[in-house]
């Protein structure tokens, strides 16, 4: 998978790893960039085991926005769609299910 689009955002994480700076790593883990990395991982590999992570192309969204509840990640554009939809709301790609 091509990670070049994320290259410019990886510097702080790589610095945290290099210097073993837990606070810097945790700060990066709270960023929108970590959410993007999780979506990329979910789209290309078995589900991660981290609590609250994207699992099997789905994610539980916390209280806040107008559309809360379980979501599925589009395999093409990574948009988080409502579980009721059979195709992506943004790009109309059909939902891929494991069933």
Task: Write up what this structure looks like.
- This protein has 99 residues and is α+β, with helices and mostly antiparallel strands.
- It has a domain at 48-99.
- 30% of the residues lie in helices and 12% in strands.
- It contains three helices and three strands; from the N terminus they run αααβββ.
- The protein has a three-stranded antiparallel beta sheet.
- A hairpin with a 6-residue loop joins strand 2 (69-73) and strand 3 (80-82).
- Helix 1 runs antiparallel to helix 2.
- The protein is elongated and about 45 Å long.
- The number of helical elements comes to 3
- What portion of residues is helical? 25-40%
3D shape:
elongated
Topology, number of strands: 3
> How would you write the strand order of the largest sheet?
1-2-3
How much of the polypeptide forms β-strand, as a percent range?
5-15%
Extract low-pLDDT stretches.
48-57, 60-66
Largest sheet: 3 strands, antiparallel
Furnish the topology, listing elements before pairings.
Elements: H1 11-19, H2 22-29, H3 32-44, E1 58-61, E2 69-73, E3 80-82
Antiparallel strand pairs: 1-2, 2-3
Helix pairs in contact: 1-2
Short description:
With 99 residues, the chain is α+β, with helices and mostly antiparallel strands. The chain has three helices and three strands; from the N terminus they run H-H-H-E-E-E. A three-stranded antiparallel beta sheet has the order 1-2-3.
């Amino acid at each position: 998978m091509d990670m070049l689009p994320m290259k410019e955002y990886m510097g702080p994480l790589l610095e945290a790893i290099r210097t073993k700076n837990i606070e810097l790593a945790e700060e990066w883990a709270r960023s929108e960039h970590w959410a993007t990395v999780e979506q990329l991982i979910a789209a290309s590999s078995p589900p991660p085991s981290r609590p609250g992570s994207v699992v099997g192309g789905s994610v539980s969204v916390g209280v806040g926005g107008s559309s809360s509840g379980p979501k599925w990640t589009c395999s093409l554009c990574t948009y988080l769609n409502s579980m009721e939809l059979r195709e992506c709301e943004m790009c109309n790609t059909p939902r891929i299910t494991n069933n």
